[in-house]
Every structure is written in C-alpha cells, then in structure tokens.
C-alpha cells in the first residue's frame, strides 16, 4: 500500500511581525535565530520529518513569508536542510502581510503541484513535538477536511489563544473562537494544522464568497483562524487531535531559554554535546571553535557558539552564548542570552528569573538578553534586563530595557 502524499507549509512571517522578538531579531530573521545550535525553523523540519518517516511521503517543504528571499541566510538554510533531510525546500515570498491564510491562497498552485493528498501548516512561532503522523491518523479516521492540533491549558490562560470546543467522544470541533473575552474552553489551537488538499481550497472559496469584507480591507488578506475555522466549525468540517506533550508559543525573546531547554532534551543525540576539557553539568553544547578554560563550569542547558572565549572560573547555566563573544574570568551567567560579539567583564553577573514564564503576560524581561556587540563592565550585575545592540554598560541594572 502506497503512503499518502503530503506537503509541509511553514508560515515564517516577516520582519514587521518580529518586534516582540527584539533585540534577537534585529540581526537575523526570527525563524533563523539559532536555538540549541540550529535555526529555530530547523527544529520544525527535523521533528516533522522524523514523525512522518515511514508514515507519509513528504514531497516538499514550503516556507511562506515576507522576509526578503534574496537574503543569503535563507538560501544557506534551504541548501543545508535539503542536504540533511533529502526533501525539496522552497521559500515563497509574499508581497506583504496577508494573514495566516493569504500566502497559502496565493501559492495554491505551488501547494497543489504534484497532487498531494494532504498538506500540513505549521506556525513558526510555536514549539512542540510536531506529532504529524498522529495528526494524519486522526485526520483520516475522522473523515473531516481540517484537523487542528489542540492542547488543554489552565483555564485562566486559555483566553490568550484560539479556543476550541470539542465533542468529547468524536473529537469534532463544534465551536471555535479566537482569543475570546470570556471562557469557552480550556482546549487551545496549537498552530499546527492538516488539510485535505482539494476540499481545503473548495472550503476557502465558499467562505470567501459568503463573507462580507469591510470597506478598504485588503482583498488578499485571509486569516485561517477567523475567516475559516470560525465559520466552518459549525458545519462539522473540523477535527481536533489533542496533544499531551510539550507545547509553547515563542511570543517573545524571553521564551527562547524555555525552547532551548526543550530542544536540548529531545535532540540530545543529534546535537554537539560537550564531553571533556572543562566542567559540564547536564546538556551542554559547545562549538568546536570555542575556547573554554578548564576551570569553567557549564550547564545545565547551555549552548556556546563559534569563536566564543570563556575565561577561568566562569559559571554559565540555562543560557545561550552566541558567536564571537568573550566571557571574562569569574563572571556568572544564569538564564540569559548573550548576543553576537558581546564582551562580559571580570566578575560580572548576568541573571534572569528562572520561572520567567509564570510572571504573567509572557513578558520578555524575565531573562536577561544582550543584543549584538554589547559590552558589560567588570564587577557589574545585569538582572532581568533587555539590552539593545552596541550598548556599553558601565553600571548595574535590574528590570530595565536599555535602548
């Protein structure tokens, strides 16, 4: 029996949508920001390919967004992914922001070419196990046109997301609301979908014909959640597959450490884990070109980029240190992201709040984040602060955004 033919669409967004990810997105597109030594969107591809292996025939991966497709970072990423996973990859550039479904509609011919039976859609700002094979099995069993990956969350958090009312036995979606003001369900939309290719575009056409657009609105704009899921949820067209596994939405730069911890755990065998030469605790990744003093202690959940220099007695845990930064002797870095080409002075301390994700409203200042080229003076303390690129910090700061 032949495997079903599928494609994978990853919505990567564009620069105007990445403001909450600053300062990390000021020097590289958010989807290509390195988390656990790999671009963020690489983790989507890796998990998706692993899940579909032997379960479906993945014909192509399409990255849809409005970043400049001529940026060499994209071509380099695509070449590397094609070589590693042996799957064709294309970047399809939108003219601007057209909603979560606008690009899919515009590039329908590219999606439909080769006649795939189904296609997946993943939002680039969600991190999870991407159980695509389970999603496929649930979708086929349901006989529906659409399957949404869902997850239960605490009731007081559900209003931040799209909420799904699901029939307890059939898993049929009977109501959908995007960020409702009142509580309707503790099952949320995880931003991962599976569509039956032919019926999806038929549904879209029917919905667009019946919808009333506001005067002056962009005719090319289309939101999957509001313009499709909400109206068709009453027509028994949507199935929901409930996940019990890790899921997080990468809304802000401060959530990077949480995602980093997850990737370090699930990809331990694939990543360049440090083995010797200095003190290691837990999962630690170090680029071969980094120079680390034997008395330094790293871990758990630490990633050290290319060309980094770490001096004697340095302590780093639950942090990311990006390429070509220098961490001088006896400094301490906890729950922080150190940007490219930063210098951390002797006996300095960078510190974030370990339970930052529970502070309320997912604020990014739960951890300390240094942009590109920041210099921190000797014997200073930077706590729970965000520092924009090329700043020279001569004093101590706490709970600040330093422009």
Task: Explain what this protein looks like in three dimensions.
With 403 residues, the chain is of the alpha/beta class. It folds into two domains: 5-251, Spore Coat Polysaccharide Biosynthesis Protein SpsA, Chain A (Alpha-Beta Complex); 273-402, Hexapeptide repeat proteins (UDP N-Acetylglucosamine Acyltransferase, domain 1). The protein is built from eight helices and 33 strands. The strands form seven sheets. It has a seven-stranded mixed β-sheet, with helices on both faces. Residues 356-365 have low confidence and may be disordered. One of its GO terms (molecular function) is nucleotidyltransferase activity.
Overview features:
403 residues; alpha/beta; Spore Coat Polysaccharide Biosynthesis Protein SpsA, Chain A; UDP N-Acetylglucosamine Acyltransferase, domain 1; 2 domains; seven-stranded mixed beta sheet; seven-stranded parallel beta sheet; 8 helices; elongated; Mannose-1-phosphate guanylyltransferase; nucleotidyltransferase activity; GMPPB_C
Q: State the CATH architecture of the largest domain.
A: Alpha-Beta Complex
Mean pLDDT: 90
Radius of gyration: 22 Å
| CATH fold assignment of the largest domain | Spore Coat Polysaccharide Biosynthesis Protein SpsA, Chain A
Question: CATH superfamily of the largest domain, please?
Answer: Spore Coat Polysaccharide Biosynthesis Protein SpsA, Chain A
Largest sheet: 7 strands, mixed
**What number of domains?**
2
Q: How many strand elements?
A: 33
Rough outline = elongated
| Top CATH class of the largest domain | Alpha Beta
Largest beta sheet: strand ordering: 5-4-1-6-11-8-12
Question: What class would the helix/strand composition place it in?
Answer: alpha/beta
Number of helices: 8
From the N-terminal CA to the C-terminal CA, the straight-line distance is 60 Å
- How much of the polypeptide forms β-strand, as a percent range? 25-35%
**Fraction in helix:** 10-25%
